[in-house]
């Protein structure tokens, strides 16, 4: 079993390398046929045909009419746009995080949806923050975090239902794992415009988050403040929410959101 897997690895890497070479060639030439690509790469036409077939199925290349020529597909644009969008969001969000962290004295994060989890792309620590935990790049569960709940509440109904009904890990005794209860919480998130997590991910850790909107008015991220429960008390939540909303509005405007 191990030897078989080991034998497959070099071939897989070679296929990936050739697929990237095809994309680079098409990006340079604009369009090319199977024979031309095969000559350029120095491989058999059948190999190129298989590679192009896979890339076409994923929308990364597309055929130009009936001429047998291929060009870069819209899938590349979609991937590049997503990467650029996250980069812009992280860059624009950093000053907002820093400003909010100074005001609140707590750790402030920006998170985006990444499949069935939230991933943190920006962070700033306030003067009162007691932990030096770096959340950037960390994947956190949607059901047990304030940012995750904001993001989960924003997805389309079918996908939201699929995620709600998935199996959920109980990180603490306070983690909500029941789909019906989670559904109620998400309705409240939508109505209230913010989400909380009181010791649902870690004992002693409280957090609150609000949505960040993009050019197409949809929720593109969540911005949150987190800290120890004795400081992020229920009494301070509304003030923190108000400050987070100011920051989220500023970032949303920079991202092209127009309030209607």
Question: Gist?
Answer:
The termini are far apart.
What does this molecule look like?
With 260 residues, this protein is an alpha+beta fold. It folds into two domains: 2-72, Orthogonal Bundle (Arc Repressor Mutant, subunit A), CATH 1.10.10.10; 84-254, Beta-Lactamase. The protein has helices at 2-29, 34-41, 45-57, 74-104, 146-154, 157-164, 179-192, 234-254, and strands spanning 32-33, 61-64, 69-72, 107-114, 117-125, 139-141, 195-198, 205-213, 219-228. Helix 1 crosses helix 3. The N and C termini lie far apart (59 Å). The mean pLDDT is 87.
CATH topology of the largest domain: Beta-Lactamase
- Report the total helices: 8
Anisotropy-based shape: elongated
The number of distinct structural domains comes to 2
Which percent bin holds the helix content?
Answer: 40-55%
The major sheet is characterized as: 6 strands, antiparallel
Protein name: Glycerol operon regulatory protein
Organism: Amycolatopsis marina
Function: May be an activator protein for the gylABX operon.
Keywords: DNA-binding, Glycerol metabolism, Transcription, Transcription regulation
């Amino acid at each position: 079993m191990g030897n078989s897997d080991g034998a497959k690895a070099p071939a897989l890497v070679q296929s990936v390398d050739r697929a990237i070479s095809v994309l680079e060639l098409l990006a340079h030439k604009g369009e090319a046929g199977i024979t031309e690509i095969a000559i350029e790469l120095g491989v058999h036409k059948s190999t190129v045909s298989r590679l192009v077939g896979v890339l076409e199925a994923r929308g990364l290349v597309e055929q130009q009419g009936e001429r047998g020529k291929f060009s870069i597909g819209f899938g590349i644009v979609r991937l590049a746009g997503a990467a650029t969008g996250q980069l812009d969001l992280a860059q624009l969000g950093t000053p907002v995080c820093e400003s909010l962290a100074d005001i609140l004295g707590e750790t402030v994060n920006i998170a985006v949806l990444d499949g069935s989890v939230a991933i943190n792309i920006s962070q700033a620590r306030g003067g009162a923050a007691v932990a030096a935990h770096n959340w950037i790049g960390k994947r956190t569960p949607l059901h047990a975090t304030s940012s995750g709940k904001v993001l989960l509440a924003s997805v389309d109904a079918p996908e939201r239902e699929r995620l709600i009904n998935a199996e959920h890990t109980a990180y603490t005794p306070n983690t909500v794992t029941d789909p019906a209860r989670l559904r109620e919480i998400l309705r409240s998130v939508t109505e209230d415009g913010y989400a909380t997590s009181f010791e649902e991910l870690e004992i002693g850790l409280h957090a609150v988050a609000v949505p960040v909107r993009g050019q197409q008015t949809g929720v593109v991220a969540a911005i949150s403040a987190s800290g120890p429960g004795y400081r992020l008390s229920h009494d301070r939540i509304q003030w923190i929410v108000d400050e987070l909303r100011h920051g989220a509005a500023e970032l949303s405007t920079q991202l092209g959101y127009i309030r209607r």
